[in-house]
Amino acid sequence: MKFLFGGLIGRLLSLAVLAVIAAGAGWYFFIREDNEAQKAAADITDEVRQAAGQTATPAATSPTGSQGSNATAPATTSAAQAEGASAYAGKSYRIIEGQSGAWYLADEKLARLPTGSTAKGTTDKIAGEFHLTEDGLDPSKATTFTVDLASITSDNSRRDERMRGALETSKYPTTTFTATAISGLPAEFGTADTILQLTGTLDLHGVQKEVTWELKVKRDGDILSVLGTTAFKYADFNITKPDIAGVVSVAEDVTLQVQLFIQEI
């Protein structure tokens, strides 16, 4: 009997080990992703122009070549280096919905393997407005944008379920950023990225916390392309990491990026 009982325990342990290995294999071959942060503001395409109510590509300001979402960043200009009054003082801009987007980048690692990967979840449900003055933001109008967290998807539904559970999207379906300060605006944006800093309050998971976005902004005609990047830890917003116990662990840090196309109101 002891021999039979010992054999049964051994078989059960073997099955448990196989289950963990199978889960790990499933993660590695079907869930694992390798993604990188976008490095430059995206080109303004004809599709973006059409969504903005335009029909033609402006010949005088169209950039040469296509950069793509993960292209190497072009030469950049610091807003602090620009001189003269900004051409954008007193103007308001609205995000072109359906063309703009937001996404997270989160590192994942299988418990029994030394290699990891970077997961990415995206949504195009983002809306908001920017209001500028000669000194920066217009204090009489809210510069803000909101992202629909419940609509974020990656390439795997199981990951999406874990992420929605961690964010509690049934209770907190959106996140909103409200800007309080922006670095000095340039006299004019060009076809190469200009780097600015945008500081404000991120309302996420019921927690409000100050964050700063690095903005890369370029112009094509009267549309601005804005790439924003910031990072935080799950714990900063009281979010439980979406780990799979004993199988997949998720890094503490999360990178958020938004690719906005904005046009003057």
Question: Quick summary of this structure?
Answer:
By secondary structure, the protein is α+β, with helices and mostly antiparallel strands. It contains three helices and twelve strands; from the N terminus they run ααβββββββαβββββ.
Give an overview of the whole structure.
- With 265 residues, the protein is α+β, with helices and mostly antiparallel strands.
- It has a single domain, classed as Lipocalin (Beta Barrel).
- It has 3 helices and 12 strands; from the N terminus they run ααβββββββαβββββ.
- The longest helix has 30 residues, at 2-31.
- It is globular, with a radius of gyration of 23 Å.
- The N and C termini lie far apart (82 Å).
Search tags:
3 helices, 12 strands, alpha+beta, 38% strand, 265 residues
What is the count of distinct domains? 1
Query: Helix- and strand-based class?
Result: alpha+beta
Radius of gyration: 23 Å
* Strand percentage: 35-45%
Give the rounded overall mean pLDDT. Answer: 82
- Poorly predicted regions are 16-25, 27-31, 59-74, 78-83
Topology:
Blueprint: H1 2-31, H2 46-51, E1 77-78, E2 92-95, E3 101-110, E4 116-123, E5 126-133, E6 136-137, E7 144-148, H3 157-167, E8 174-182, E9 194-204, E10 207-220, E11 223-233, E12 248-264
Parallel strand pairs: 1-9
Antiparallel strand pairs: 2-5, 2-12, 3-4, 3-12, 5-6, 5-7, 7-8, 8-9, 9-10, 10-11, 11-12
